[in-house]
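Reviewers of the previous submission asked for a worked example of the structure-prediction workflow described in the proposal, so we include one complete record here. The input consisted solely of the amino acid sequence. No template or homolog information was supplied to the procedure at any stage.
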Amino acid sequence: MAEKVKAELFLEFDASIYNAEACKRAAYVMMKDVVCDITTAGEKIICKLLVKSDEPAENVAANFRQEVLDQDLRLSIEAQTEPLRNLVLGLAFSRVGQNGEIH
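From that input alone, the workflow returned the following structure tokens.
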């Protein structure tokens, strides 16, 4: 059964600052409260939010913006630490033999 939409919001993010993947991740985190449609228009990422929760629309918008920022920072940290993460994993698995024994 479809939930009743309480509000419709349009949030814009500058694509030169934010990653569209961050908007997708934020939409996933907040899927209990919103249905999100993500599109692009030029240098803008546009998130159409259909609010399902009883939370005031302004709060939902603020929470979504905070979640997009959080996810964008997580993506930046992932990219910055990927070489180190790969090195650690490579070293860890290089010490494991074919039969699973540690050398």
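Strands lie at 7-14, 34-41, 44-51. We consider this example representative of the routine output the project will generate in years two and three.
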